Amino acid sequence: MNSLSKAKACSGVPLEVRNQLRLGWRNGVTLAFKDRFVHFDPSRKLGKDCTVFISHAHADHLSKLSSEAESYLTPETFDIASVIQGRPSVKAIPLGFNQTLKLDEFEIIAHNAGHMLGSAQFELRSSGSTVVYTGDINCRNMFTTSAAESIPCDCLILETTYGVPYYTFPDLTVTCAEIVEWALQQVKTGKIPVFRAYSGGKAQEIIKIFNVMTRIPVIAEGVVAEITEAYVRNGVNLNYFNSASTEAQELLKTGECVCISSQDRGVAGLANSSLAVATGWALGKRFLRREAAFPLSSHADFDQLIEYVKQARPREVITVHGFKEEFADYLRRKFGIKARPISPLQQDSLTDFF
């Protein structure tokens, strides 16, 4: 039997816990126990009877924060949320990495997820058995984040955005070198290179790439600059100019700079520019001819996901998002692991692995 398929010994969970603890999809990944509903990255705003955990500060997650539900997120995630939403009117409670929260019969611990500043995966323990929700994870060291580590568990709820073998990313140093080479070539030909990127996470990674690998100034536009300042407040050393500043306007006149924007059309008012995107989807999707595309991703690729499972040694894997059916099927066929895509809450019980 493959070592990956060997089930870990279970220390035993009281029968009354096993019979009442359920897992499934209900407005996000949800654990239900008795009258308690614990939601991870909910897909809509929830009421005061719910407990919410937010894994990271991308806008599609933050927009679901509610002023009623008790919400846990890392201090860094809350700082970025304050930039995006103003000071969010939520019952936000900071939960730093490696801190333990007591919740009924359970302990919940936040761990680094490597996806962006403050991104967390959550470990839920009960009487010696463990459920882990990874959220969006990245398992390699980047310029602005450290790699997520696998957490040994009985049940692994795994984000599988790139969960097929096709999405195996090139070495990071190769991708970064290609990004820099392209940008410098644009400057050499009199064009300003503009990167379209997520305002939080990817944008700061690109800024750091140019800080480390070149001496060319970097201009950040709008919310990118505001979130970058949050990174700086939290100890990430980034050198950049806000596009609204006098210095940035002078640099744009010379054309000897790189711009980072979250807007589809790049930095406002730039006529003589070349556009590029940095995303893992660059491996498999066609982009407009006017855009260069580089496979720089803050998500785990297929190989990273497999290695995470190997290290975590779960009894069961439940896949979420992306290629969830394909990745679950691969684990079953290749390693004999009990794996399946997440299904509606009322159909899922945790009794099989607890």
Task: Please characterize this protein's 3D structure.
The protein is of the alpha/beta class and 354 residues long. It folds into two domains: 3-167 and 299-347, Metallo-beta-lactamase, Chain A, CATH 3.60.15.10; 172-294, Rossmann fold. It is 26% helix and 25% strand. The strands form three sheets. It has a seven-stranded mixed sheet, with helices on one face.
List the helices and strands and how they pair.
Elements: H1 15-18, E1 21-25, E2 29-33, E3 36-40, E4 50-53, H2 59-62, E5 70-73, H3 75-85, E6 91-94, E7 100-103, E8 106-112, E9 120-126, E10 129-133, E11 155-159, H4 172-188, E12 192-196, H5 202-213, E13 218-220, H6 223-233, E14 241-242, H7 246-254, E15 258-261, E16 273-278, E17 291-294, H8 302-312, E18 316-320, H9 324-335, E19 338-341
Parallel strand pairs: 3-4, 4-5, 5-6, 10-11, 11-18, 12-15, 12-16, 13-14, 13-15, 16-17, 18-19
Antiparallel strand pairs: 1-2, 2-3, 7-8, 8-9, 9-10
